[in-house]
Each structure stands twice: as structure tokens, then as C-alpha cells.
What we know:
Layout: H1 3-30, H2 33-40, H3 44-50, H4 54-75, H5 83-97, H6 99-107, H7 114-137, H8 143-162, H9 171-175
Amino acid sequence: MTSKDDASLNRKEQILDAAATLFAESGYYKTTTAKVAEAVGVTQPYVFHFFKTKESLYLAVLERAYQRILYAFTSVQAPPEHLQETMGNAFIELLADHRDEILLIMMAYSTPEPAIRDHTRSQFEMIYDRVLNRFTQAGLSEPQQKASSFIGFGLLIAMSETLDLPYLCRWRDKNSEKHDHH
């Protein structure tokens, strides 16, 4: 890969980062590709070079975050009795390191655009399948129930973060010392 390719790839990542922040702060409808371009310091046509529409940019932000979640849930290692907690901690780490992206994913179902809803549905099915598979392979009892509860708790964490209602989830209390630097 040439240095020009590297710079282009880096710029694409910067566009995705800026878009994640703006979509998380302002929502899908109020975020424009012009605002994303301005945040990165490029022209709007440059953004369109990578992403043909605002919807494709939004879906790319979601896809990158889904891949982070799937990787975290697949790669985490723990004995069966600690698997749920360890996977939960991996989610908390993602939230600390990629807050805007992770919150966007957890709230993407609220954007009524059909392509976004369809993408979100298929991605949540994939996450559920991945979690269920891990719980089943670990020999946990009632893996479907545990997988549903695990995802439900993730949604509750995202809601408590988005609305700044920390008392809905006490996970911050035990993790606050660990993540004070964020």
C-alpha cells in the first residue's frame, strides 16, 4: 500500500470517527455530511468519495461498531462460571473506548429508515447468535435466557449512559476506579 493509500484510509477512519460523534450528539436526521466534512476538515464531495449517501455513512459507522462488539464477544476468554461477567466487562471496555459508536449501535433501532432498521435487526441477530453460541459452548444452563438477558442489560447500560441516569445501572460503581482516566 502506498503512503497515499494509507493517508486515504486514515482519512476515511477520521470521517467515520467524526460521523460517530455527530450522529451520537445530534441524531441521524440533524447530522449532515457537510457537518461531518467540516469536523474532519475536508470538503463534502470528499466525504461522498467514500460514502455515497448519509445513510451509507451511518451504516458504515454502525458496521464498524458491530464488528468491534462481535470481536470482543468472540475473543474474550474465561472459564464458564465467569464468562458472562467477562463478556460484560468487554462491553464496558468498548463503551469506555468507543462510547459514541457503541451507544449508536444500541440505539440504532430507533431510527425508522428501513435500511437502517433491517441492518440493525440483522446485526442484533448476529450478536445474539454469537452470545448464545458462547454460552452454549460453555455449557451454561438456559443459554437462550442468559443471552437475551445479557443483551437486555447491554441495552439498559446504553440507555442509562445516553440519558445520564447512572442509578439505572450500578456497573459504573465497581468499574469507576478502573476507568477514571476516560
